[in-house]
Amino acid sequence: MDKKINTLLGTAIVPRVIDLIMQKDGMSDIKAVEKFYNSKTYEALSDAETGVWHLSPLTIYNMWKSEIETGDLNFPEEQ
Fold it and tell me: Which one, 14, 36, 57, 60, has least CB within 10 Å?
């Protein structure tokens, strides 16, 4: 993965998504990290070619939440 994207993920995007999971789903930080890192959403986010990294943390959270509820990864219309 491109180093700039990797830095962006680690410093800006992933922490904000984890915060949203903790706030909206009432999970502990450890559980939220575990659930997110083991998701298809994170896998897509980690793949620079999907373009998921350019989406807002809230949009990525909504993708993750939908995946958790349905088992399917759905990309938003703005993709």
Answer: 57
How many domains are contained in the chain? Answer: 1
Residue 54, domain extent: 3-70
The string of pLDDT tens digits covering residues 1-34 is 567 666 666 668 999 999 999 999 999 999 999 9
Give a yes or no: residue 76 inside a domain: no
Buried b (16+ CB within 10 A) or exposed e, 56-68: ebebbbbbbeebe
Structural Rg of the chain based on CA atoms: 12
Q: What is the DSSP letter of 78?
A: T
